[in-house]
Automatic annotation (TrEMBL):
Pfam families: Abhydrolase_1. Residues 92-188 form the AB hydrolase-1 domain. This is AB hydrolase-1 domain-containing protein.
Amino acid sequence: IYKPFGLWTLGLVVIIKHIVSKAIHTNIFQRRYIQTIQIFHTILIDNTASLAVALFIGVATAASVPAWEDWAHGRVQLKNVSMHFRYAGSGPPLLLVHGNPQHSITWRLLGPAMAENYTVIAPDNRGMGDSSLAPISDYTAASMASDLEGLLSFLNINKTFVFSYDKGVGAAVALAAKKPSLVQALAVSEYALPGFGYESLWTPQYDWDAYGNWELAWWSVPEAAERFIQGRVREVIGWFFYHTSYSGASSIPLSAVDEVVDSINKPGFLRSMLGPFAASTMGADAAFFNSTIRQHPLPMPFLGLGGEAGTAAILHELWPPVGTSVEVDIVPKAGHFPADENPAWVAQRINKFYNPHKKGISTADLSWLTDKVTLV
């Protein structure tokens, strides 16, 4: 009974996004009206899309899951990083690992949808969001995986589902390689592992233009990139969202862009945002993955997703060598931001992927965190 309404609502979202996108890109409206339209888009799209996602996957009511803004917050002091995380929901644990330049806000739509059936844990990776900066600028996949392992240990979780995106994929795969018993099933989106295809994406090509992957090459030298981005974070991040998405400016609402920009503008956080892109980081990651999964492919069920305007064309090259039980799929009407651009489809697809593997994984209960002192 709820799915048709969810589909209708999602259809309304798509139509409105299309109208706003066309208005912005073709100057149908005068410049003085654009800001008003974008504000309307921000308010309507985020709230309506959240409802549509929940209804589309068959949720009877979203009342039991708080809105993203009302999710509980936690913080844990790990070996050398203070990690912030959000959590909500009930059921087996699901760890969501974001990429760069975003932080846990990546999951503002997908998280509430998945929290109907899972206990969702959404950390901010080291140097992003409300987590602390990493010592000696260490943003390697292996170190980020150690953070995730420490968080799960603190939460008394010994097995979890994992869904990761962009640079978070490196951390998630490293976690699965180091501690395969921790990961029940692993889904990844919009990334290529160093040593397994990333190099082809950051190497300049003869046909590159403004819509190419030039920022990967640029950001590989953080000192230079920081020099030219400082004071222009909104312009750079705005263009990144625009040119790597399926439908341009309508893909990411202004409120989410503002939160990402505000986070990166904190002292030291522009450099930390660039850290995972550094050539030295990529070299360390390639060495790690070649010494682990190249020798011993991941044993757990594995799903690789790519947006049709993102990594879809190379999915079958990227992921089969990584594991022994690999499937891939294309996210329709999405570019580099599947959780933003088509969250309903992603929620349905990863639910379908995880469901056969729920046997043997315990329900997570994080109620003990309420008013719990966790830093001392």
